[in-house]
Amino acid sequence: MNYGYLKTDFFINYLVCFYLKLFYCLFDYMCPRTFVQLIACSLGRFQAKGYLCSQNTLIMCKFSESTKQKLGNAIIYIARHTSGLSKTKLLKLLYLMEERMALKYHVPFIGIPFEVWQAGPVAKDVFVDLSDGPYLLKSFVKTDFKDGGTFIEAVADFDDSEFSECEIEMMDEILAKYGNMTASDLVAETHKEGTLWYRVAARTGLLEAFNKHECNNSDRQIDFAEAMTDCAAEDYRESLNIRQTANLLNAESHV
Asked: Which UniProt keyword terms apply here (predicted)?
């Protein structure tokens, strides 16, 4: 399972981790938000030089405990409120929740990247984990292969400690609108002309490749800021960088 977040070799990976830990030692007396903003800005310089992935998105090399708890409990919530929850359906509902939070409130929900696949948008780390196990999410759900597909079932009770009231309301709105749709219906919904998936797929030539069955996945990511005003996009990207940098630092501290 590949959770690498750099496009270059191991040396650059090691250098960034060292860089982060150095800043942690130097600035641990600063307030958490100021510290995380500083690291986020520093990571932005790596991104500008092409060391990090594009679209102002830092792909997480691993999940912090907080991110894993939020992701796992979001999946539990979805599983408890829908029937026939296939892996594809789950991934689409997670995407729609992330999109709604980003476009309505200009903040990330979980903050994981979604890639443009033929049956996308897909959170690759979640897809791989549910296909192989689960491993990261084994405390939250189990999988059952039946009728030619992978289906998800919750194995724990929902814990709302990682969620705001606003986020619970948002999840309820998404499930009320899309929860009864089939996986195929949700794929069609997220692939409509004008959606972010469609824009990226059309702009990069993936739409034609998908239609011709030349490929079924890509590493192109959806940037929610693309559908925002400049001001909203700036707020969202700052919030996303802070969230993902905090995840990275928290994950590193448990290594």
From this structure: Membrane, Transmembrane, Transmembrane helix
Helix axis angle for 165-178 and 87-105, nearest 10°, is 130
Count of domains in the chain? 1
So what's the pLDDT on residue 26? 46
Asked if 122 and 91 touch (Cβ cutoff 8 Å), the reply is: yes
How far apart (Å, rounded) are the C-alpha atoms in residues 194 and 178?
18
Q: Is residue 186 part of a domain?
A: yes
Q: Residue 135: which domain range? A: 65-253
Residues whose CB is less than 8 angstroms from the CB of residue 198 and which lie 6 or more positions away in sequence, other chains included: 191, 192, 207
Q: Is residue 104 part of a domain?
A: yes
Residue 157 is assigned to a structural domain of this protein:
yes
Cis omega (within 30 of 0) for bond into 113: no
209-239 pLDDT, tens digit each: 999 999 999 999 999 999 999 999 999 999 9
Give the pLDDT confidence of 98-146 residue by residue, as tens digits. Answer: 999 999 999 999 999 999 999 989 999 999 999 988 999 999 999 999 8
Instruction: State the alpha helices, DSSP H only, in the chain.
Output: 10-27, 32-48, 65-81, 87-105, 124-132, 165-178, 183-190, 196-203, 206-211, 230-253
